[in-house]
Amino acid sequence: xxxxxxxxxxxxxxxxxxxxxxxxxxxxxxxxxxxxxxxxxxxxxxxxxxxxxxxxxxxxxxxxxxxxxxxxxxxxxxxxxxxxxxxxxxxxxxxxxxxxxxxxxxxxxxxxxxxxxxxxxxxxxxxxxxxxxxxxxxxxxxxxxxxxxxxxxxxxxxxxxxxxxxxxxxxxxxxxxxxxxxxxxxxxxxxxxxxxxxxxxxxxxxxxxxxxxxxxxxxxxxxxxxxxxxxxxxxxxxxxxxxxxxxxxxxxxxxxxxxxxxxxxxxxxxxxxxxxxxxxxxxxxxxxxxxxxxxxxxxxxxxxxxxxxxxxxxxxxxxxxxxxxxxxxxxxxxxxx
Amino acid sequence: xxxxxxxxxxxxxxxxxxxxxxxxxxxxxxxxxxxxxxxxxxxxxxxxxxxxxxxxxxxxxxxxxxxxxxxxxxxxxxxxxxxxxxxxxxxxxxxxxxxxxxxxxxxxxxxxxxxxxxxxxxxxxxxxxxxxxxxxxxxxxxxxxxxxxxxxxxxxxxxxxxxxxxxxxxxxxxxxxxxxxxxxxxxxxxxxxxxxxxxxxxxxxxxxxxxxxxxxxxxxxxxxxxxxxxxxxxxxxxxxxxxxxxxxxxxxxxxxxxxxxxxxxxxxxxxxxxxxxxxxxxxxxxxxxxxxxxxxxxxxxxxxxxxxxxxxxxxxxxxxxxxxxxxxxxxxxxxxx
DNA sequence: AGCGCAGTTGCAAACGTTCGCAAGCTGGTG
DNA sequence: CACCAGCTTGCGAACGTTTGCAACTGCGCT
Lengths: 337, 337
Prior knowledge:
By secondary structure, chain A is an alpha/beta fold. The first copy, chain A, contains 13 helices and twelve strands. In chain A, helix 2 crosses helix 3 and helix 8 crosses helix 9. At the A-B interface, helix 4, helix 5 and strand 2 of A face helix 4, helix 5 and strand 2 of B.
């Protein structure tokens, strides 16, 4: 293994100079710097991370905690975060908590001491989580706790767009099929929907319970939606929409003829199923990148001593119109085979 | 920050004893061990990874390199690997290379020195990759290089099962829509298919080019499949199958009435699309776990001095029969609206 | 010519852990 | 009673880097 000592010997300087030449080039005289760089390159010198971390106290690596990597939503965020971390020359520890709050707390506890900061993606137990962090830099994704930096999708704007779209088609009674009770995104969507509908006096929102954010959740919700008398429905995510469509079809209803359906997330199933889903799209890749940027800035600010204002960038949510939404038809056709 | 010294003081022993009590409990007398463990727990002592790594030379962390985390296939493998690593108390660095061989080589070069070993998942440039590893423990997933440990899915067995299924339905001419030229899995599947068909003298295989492993690839392949005169088709993966079905439908053909389709991977789109796809299923979670186990064993063996035989566990590939396969119908009905 | 100052460089002390070595202790044996 | 073996524990030296401090250089100023 080649160490600073080897490089120093070859370059004819002391190890301190080698360290400085590589870490803070501006503090070393030009010719010396060149000699050191040359030697380092020739020897294919790679600084020992562990030693640097031990001495300097910071690792140049960050953590990312996600509930489920197999969920395309989080996979996309993770991918974005990873790409950004790489660009910044930092490492990224990705941990999958299997949607388990206990595992989440444990993961954070393990990550905190050996990273320079952690991104918590849709945390299930943010409060406990923040405790486990012991005051280390942290960025929340799609979750909010007072005074903690975060990045989020603009659910409010997304909901407004979805509702405007449905209203323009002629819908006046719109159902919302909710996700997990504890989901922050779900809360934001409900709130956004309520706000958006308040702007019109001719549109009514019906909230239809909480369901698992899976295909089965949508199947379970379908009958309630039918009974609600709504002519259009917005679902917590695309999978719920898929399940909903499935069950509606089983009951003899056609989408979008009898009911318009809007999904959320624009996961790639949205374009694969029949009919292709109208859905709300967030650039998850960018969300991941933004989270890392925000974290690095927070960590740097913390080191610099100046407290960084915990602002909260929100990423645009776009409406992608496909074939699951259409104008409503008069009630008499509903339920017809 | 609480260190071994603090624990030692509280437990009334020396730091060496603390270190031993926690790392190699069997080398410390019962009561002493208890005192140390108690103290460590009370103080919430967490060993400084960097220091341990620096001194001991091994990090207790491994690397996992995948081409694309957003691909459910790799996401599932990553998830399994992660879960297993956690169980073993090890860390796992997951790196996404965006399908880029250069990035892959770079990632490996960065990972190798700071981990105890690396899992390479479907590497695009395995040969270069192995060079960059500088002789460090490595396990290949779905790739083979002589003398290098690997885990793989039993593509051969899977292909045999798919072919037997189609033959039992009455198909005698089966097309295979291939994936990327450089894909090792694709090679294995072709070979497996050839072997399986050799066992019967009444079944014929038609290989239909190489296509992108995406929906578009399947759409592009559809017309060639129709022209091939096959009554059934096996595709490189489920997405290709989806694209294929899509294009067939556009040309007025019904699946499975006019053509039976078998996908590969059993990604969750397989059950969502219409018709639900008959497909080959690998337990990717287990594949990831197996890879980590194999890597840890290899690394331990290397440390122990005894060379581990580079065996190559193969995971079962099952056929999941859904609704995209059926008996063939006589030629005259083909192309009818 | 003497002095101070800025720009460079080297010395040496950490950082927190692991582990080889040896010392201490206990109990069994000659 | 002396001795040895074996178990347990402590001492202290690494591991490779960063960084505060001090020493040295050469230059411009008084």
